[in-house]
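DM from R.C. (forwarded with permission)

"hey, sorry to bug you on a friday — could you get me a structure for this? deadline for the figure draft is monday and I only need the backbone to look sensible"
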Amino acid sequence: MEAGINQVAERLEKLRSILPARGRVLIITHDYPDPDALASAAALHLLLTKQFNLHGYIVFTGTVTRAENKEMLRHCRYAWHLPEMIRPSRRKIPALFVDTVPWSGNVTVPAFARPVAVFDHHPLPARRATGDLFLDVRVGSGATVTTLYEYLSACGIAIPTWLASMMVYAVATETLDLSRNCTAPDLDAYLGLLARANMRILGQIRHARLPRIYFAQLKEAMR
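My reply, with the result:
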């Protein structure tokens, strides 16, 4: 356990070395983000604010249409932006990618973004991007949000109940309620987050109200 703590501390220092001293930082998810991407982005926003005193801008391309994911966004206290909502600067803005890598093909990288870091748990695509990127890619881990939980815990950052609710739901969905690809860190994250989660919020996410069009489309599909 101690070696794990030291390893996270080393990664935090490496991350600090590639981040700007001040200004904006983009947090970019894959297009049409799922619960793991949404919760990971929010967790990274908290880390940037509390540990590095930086202002994060969460950015994604596409829409969030699944009822549970829309409910997650409803409870999220951080603003979300489409690329066209971001005001470009003369210099490219440093960008951190969550649950994806900038060369994967499932993410739209804005022209004004400069990739500097990646947090993911999927196998890396064969084609690697050039440049000096901070990579924390834990292939085999159940969820990307587990990695962000480790960072927040190592920094002693208290996770608010609304965010803990999002994060624990993300771990559950990525691991099929801990039955698929669930590692020891995933289980630790799940139990730690569950203790801080708001059960009312978690219930609202899990049992989000479905629109009538959902049942109409289901009927048509069955027919």
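R.C.: lifesaver. Residues 116 and 133 are 5 Å apart (CA to CA).
me: no worries. Strands lie at 24-29, 55-59, 80-81, 93-98, 113-120, 134-137.
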